[in-house]
Amino acid sequence: EDKVVQSPLSLVVHEGDTVTLNCSYEVTNFRSLLWYKQEKKAPTFLFMLTSSGIEKKSGRLSSILDKKELFSILNITATQTGDSAVYLCAVENNNAGNMLTFGGGTRLMVKP
Amino acid sequence: DAGVTQSPTHLIKTRGQQVTLRCSPKSGHDTVSWYQQALGQGPQFIFQYYEEEERQRGNFPDRFSGHQFPNYSSELNVNALLLGDSALYLCASSGKGTQVYEQYFGPGTRLTVT
User: Fold this and answer.
1) How many angstroms separate the CA atoms of B39 and A38, rounded?
2) A83: three-class secondary structure by DSSP
3) Where are the domains of chain B?
4) How many domains does chain A fold into?
5) How far is the C-alpha of B74 from the C-alpha of B78, rounded, in Å?
6) What is the CATH code for B5-113?
7) DSSP 3-state assignment of B84?
8) Which of A99, A101, A102, A107 to probe the B interface (max B CBs under 10 A)?
């Protein structure tokens, strides 16, 4: 059974701080790892990391994948109050179509 | 172009009752997946429908069933509701040949079982 564990469960920082969110996984036939941001309801896609793309960056957000150690991190620099959300990590199994296995999420609160 | 839509937005039911949730996929998408997200947890995969058939199923009891219509919209039915079924139910749609990151999530239906 595929498994994703995220840490920390929650995090409170002040604007301008840098945060690192962690995701470790076990999957029988890895295809990709995805990061989502969930503010209210629908998760919105941030990054997808695969064997051929182990580092992604978009503005203040960046992510890396370590396929050997089976983990990923999501970094957010110069945090803003708008970054407050739950961040979800999910893995895709090569045998399972578009089905995703999600971690429990990290709740980030950025204070002014 | 409307994205994924779900109805109703919120729902309150009593233990033992039955509920039906609805999802309309994004235009051009033909595959619908359902997820359950309990408070403070990540989404858990319930099942996926393609060509009006259940293609994959997660670790959920038979009380959870679904249907997909010829227009690709889908329903999730839950029988004999338990307090533990209280959750946000998310629907996600995707199309043939699309990659997983191109899967769009709907806003969800918040189900409360009392």
Assistant:
1) 13
2) helix
3) 5-113
4) 1
5) 13
6) 2.60.40.10
7) helix
8) A99
Question: Which residue shows structure tokens 């309990």?
Answer: B38
Do B68 and B50 contact (CB within 8 A), yes or no? yes
Domain limits for position A10: 3-111
Please indicate if any CB of chain B lies within 8 Å of the CB of A42: yes
| CATH code of the domain in which A16 resides | 2.60.40.10
Tens of pLDDT along chain A (112 residues) come to 899 999 999 999 999 999 999 999 999 889 999 999 999 889 999 999 997 768 899 999 999 999 888 999 999 999 999 999 999 999 998 877 778 999 999 999 999 9
Shortest distance, CA A22 to any CA of chain B (angstroms): 15
Confidence of residue B1 (pLDDT cuts 50, 70, 90): low
Residue ranges of B 6-65 with Cβ closer than 8 A to chain A? 31, 33, 35, 40-45, 48, 55-56, 58
pLDDT at B95: 86
The pLDDT value recorded for residue A95 is: 79
Note the maximum CA span of chain A. Answer: 44
